[in-house]
Amino acid sequence: xxxxxxxxxxxxxxxxxxxxxxxxxxxxxxxxxxxxxxxxxxxxxxxxxxxxxxxxxxxxxxxxxxxxxxxxxxxxxxxxxxxxxxxxxxxxxxxxxxxxxxxxxxxxxxxxxxxxxxxxxxxxxxxxxxxxxxxxxxxxxxxxxxxxxxxxxxxxxxxxxxxxxxxxxxxxxxxxxxxxxxxxxxxxxxxxxxxxxxxxxxxxxxxxxxxxxxxxxxxxxxxxxxxxxxxxxxxxxxxxxxxxxxxxxxxxxxxxxxxxxxxxxxxxxxxxxxxxxxxxxx
Length: 282
Description:
mainly beta; 28 strands; elongated; single chain; three-stranded parallel beta sheet; 10% helix; 2 helices
């Protein structure tokens, strides 16, 4: 009588995954592929995955962010050039945007190009072709300030002459004299000028009272309010804007007869005969 052969089963190597046939009664065997010993009945151990800890994102500190912005601003200025004018001889020249000062090639006068940021009380005179920024806590009481552009968010008690734009974003009384190519009174501003304001163009978005002498256009935006005397070549009052005061259109300047010589004052009086007086506008 023939003997039955032992039963073979398919087993899998727990190390390399190779499958082979072994006797069911075998207690141990060797993998024919990797040569490792294993028990056929032992289950294949589950693969263990170790999760790598992700590096925590570092929060950028304000100082680091400010430093990065300063580097970017410095790089931008170094690539940019500006055309400036000498205060003494009005000679124009082109300089690097990163320069803080220069010498006029015509009269050898020193020209300051620095930007000034006023954060506390400041009373020294400023003469620069850079910008002047008076912050909310700043108090500028200099008798003479000449600059390229200016932003007023704090107190201004001195005279300010800007070759470019003056942006006013504060409330209060301004006793000094202002002159600029353009003045913008922002929406939240509410200012009162004690002295005449001389500009080329003026834009009013908030509230203002005073006397304006403009060589160009005076614009009162929606919700803007202007009270006082305006002498300009043209005026534009948008819907929702308010103007109350005297209006003189077509004249870019005003003269005070009492400050002129007697002959000039008499001539000015003769020329004014026949002209209609300024009409109140509301």
